[in-house]
Design a protein that fits this description.
about 250 residues, alpha/beta, Spore Coat Polysaccharide Biosynthesis Protein SpsA, Chain A, 9-stranded mixed beta sheet, about 25% strand, EC 2.4.-.-, Nucleotide-diphossugar_trans
């Protein structure tokens, strides 16, 4: 355990009073020996700050004016002291003990820059009347796809790929992974669920479905523009984009 590096977990949150305490407690249950939890409050107007104050000994809490999730994550990366960076959206959860396993793999394989796990999609069951945290049930089989919270990253990879584009209010994760793919950033996918992706009425993505689809077109246009600007000197990715974003586990 002593060989494990400091891991910085960045939680961007906007009006997440229903989820923040559970997210922090979920991270503490990882029992990771060197953990830095950075909560970036992106201009919340609810009780997010009050809830964060209850965990003042366990987290770094930073408030900023509302600038969107990309800017919030960038702020967290700039503050992070860990050799390893990862992200957890405030309404999602991680599988227990997954952080030790994934970080150990990353350290044992210096050529790997991203270790990714599977995603278990969860749906809010409106018929449940007990604790809100228990009112989610799994749907579909676990899968691998783009979701920042399903992976851990060497901090150095952000020097190569760059930060998230703050101009993007959606699909900033797809844009970043596409840039990583273009640069042949080496990632592996572990055949284990890391992230419980919880869908509910407050999800930003679910509220902006049409905008997300439009945003994907914009991301691919950016990719084409980069390739054209690089010309024949650019290095082709070692695998197809669909394989990189949704490849089979190792």
């Amino acid at each position: 355990m002593n060989h494990l590096p400091l891991v910085s977990v960045i939680i961007p949150v906007y009006n997440g009073e229903h989820f923040l305490a559970e997210a922090i407690q979920n991270l503490k249950r990882q029992h990771y020996p060197q953990l830095e939890i950075i909560v970036i409050d992106d201009g919340s107007t609810d009780k997010t700050a009050e809830i964060a104050a209850q965990f003042h000994a366990d987290i770094r809490y930073i408030y900023q004016s509302n600038q969107g999730p990309a800017a919030a994550r960038n702020h967290g990366i700039n503050l992070a002291q860990g050799e390893v960076i990862t992200f957890l959206d405030v309404d999602d959860l991680w599988a227990d003990q997954v952080l030790i396993e994934f970080t150990s793999y990353l350290i044992a394989h210096p050529e790997v820059e991203i270790v990714q796990g599977l995603i278990q999609q969860m749906q809010l069951d409106p018929t449940r009347t007990d604790r809100y945290a228990d009112a989610f049930k799994p749907i579909f089989e676990p899968y691998q796809f783009i979701n920042l919270g399903s992976a851990i990253y060497r901090k150095s990879v952000f020097d190569k790929v760059g930060l998230f584009d703050p101009e993007l209010r959606d699909n900033e994760d797809t844009d970043w992974f596409m840039r990583a793919w273009e640069q042949n950033i080496h990632k592996v996918v572990m055949p284990k669920v890391m992230l419980f992706y919880r869908q509910h009425g407050r999800n930003m993505v679910l509220q902006q479905t049409n905008l997300v689809h439009f945003g994907l077109l914009k991301i691919f246009k950016r990719h084409i523009a980069r390739k054209r600007s690089q010309g024949t000197s650019s290095v082709s990715p070692s695998m197809h984009w669909l394989d990189y974003s949704g490849q089979s586990p190792i």
